[in-house]
Amino acid sequence: MKIAILIISLLLSSTTYLSAVRVSKVDSSGKVATLYGEKEEKEFQNLLKLNKRFPQAYVINLKLGNLYYLKGDYFNSIKHYKRASLVATSAIEPKLGLVRDYLAIRDIDKALAITDSIVKLDFYNYYANYYQLLALKMKAQDDNAIEIAKRMLNLNPKDLLFLQELGKLYIDRDRIKALRIFKRILKLDPNNSIAKKYLTTLLKVKH
Q1: Which domain holds residue 17?
Q2: Which of 91, 122, 140 is the last residue before a domain boundary?
């Protein structure tokens, strides 16, 4: 009975999780910015028990992949995301999870291979494009990263995430463009701490 309740609870929370796996914030080094706390640890322990009984269950492996990722155990995260991908071969979420793991361990080529495969099927997939941009930055392929940012901003010129990335990409190549972008971000979001930080730095630089 207890196991059945846990499974129902997992299924009910799966939608929230699927959003989380897409929006977990990754910095330029590929590391996650989300905190792992007591709530996550409790869920993790429950999932480990369920995983022993249902080793091929899609949602269980998907959630374990995310929690291992938040714990910084990228190799176990990869194992569970791969298992989830085998169960649901067309699912995007475990693929995006794998990309985050590969960025974290700096296996950039594998990250790019997966984002390429997603973008071929869904050219404007938001997070595939975002993670691809990060991967290209890590490979110092800034021109290609800029193309992605512009592509996504053509769809939504007010998208703060891609505006921030575009601004950062222009810092060393076109200070004036970078300033304009960060000023635009502050018009859209006056409390944006990232834009404030870069604007302060850029304004200190002498012409």
Answers
A1: 2-140
A2: 140
> What does each C-alpha distance from 168 to 59, 76, 122, 136 come to in angstroms?
36, 32, 26, 13
Residues 160 and 187 in one domain: yes
Beta-bridge mates of residue 26: 32
Cα radius of gyration rounded to whole Å, the chain: 19
* Identity of the residue numbered 125: N
Both tokens of residue 118? 């997603």
pLDDT tens for residues 192-206? Answer: 999 999 999 998 875
Q: Taking 90 as the threshold, does the pLDDT of residue 18 lie above it?
A: no
Mean pLDDT of the chain: 88
Closest CA to 82 of 68, 95, 70, 63: 95
Q: Is 159 helix (H, G, I), strand (E, B) or coil?
A: coil
pTM assigned to the model: 0.83
- Kindly state whether residues 105 and 191 are assigned to the same domain: no
* pLDDT, position 35: 76
Contact status, residue 118 vs residue 125, Cβ threshold 8 Å: yes
Q: What's 20's domain CATH number?
A: 1.25.40.10
32 has which bridge partners?
Answer: 26
Same domain? For 135 and 171 the reply is no
